[in-house]
Amino acid sequence: GDSVTQMEGPVTLSEEAFLTINCTYTATGYPSLFWYVQYPGEGLQLLLKATKADDKGSNKGFEATYRKETTSFHLEKGSVQVSDSAVYFCALRRVTGGGNKLTFGTGTQLKVEL
Amino acid sequence: EAGVVQSPRYKIIEKKQPVAFWCNPISGHNTLYWYLQNLGQGPELLIRYENEEAVDDSQLPKDRFSAERLKGVDSTLKIQPAELGDSAVYLCASSLEGSGEAFFGQGTRLTVV
User: Fold this and answer.
1) Cβ contact B56–A99 (<8 Å)
2) Contacts of B93 in chain A (CB under 8 A)
3) How far is the C-alpha of A95 from the C-alpha of A112, rounded, in Å?
4) What is the pLDDT of residue A94?
5) For chain A, which ranges sit under pLDDT 50?
């Protein structure tokens, strides 16, 4: 079945450091890939997405490239801020039976310190 | 535009008691999802509705869980009776159509004691 594996946290960085959160997936067909973010006390928010191989999703300084050859969708940001502290979830979506099926990773907590 | 609204935000109940969660999706969104998020885990789908029809409930533990979406708008998820292992966050999400982007509510954190 579908699965998403992401690096365990927590990841602790100093402000302005470079961020990479690894994500790999297993799925049949051609899934779409997503990064969701969950700030403390809030619901999941879509951060970025990519729908086909070699697509790059980007938002708020975060980027991720859909690599079919390595089945990866690593999240990167060149300079993190304290406000980026949150839990980040990698997810894939396949359309089955006419609808969405989102499969999430376990989440990676990011802590950014001054 | 209002997002997905869930209530209550928090609920503490004793084991063997019933509990219900409510979700109001974004206006006009035909597809509604209930997800379960255990501590330290990613969300897992419990049930998906297309309008008022449950089209995917394969992961819903039907011995104690039930859901309804009367009139194809808001939805209720019920657990009866609750067990200690049901302590988790229950997330509701909606999308304009089955293949569209899903928007999530803030969730209901259930604690069973």
Assistant:
1) yes
2) 44
3) 35
4) 80
5) none
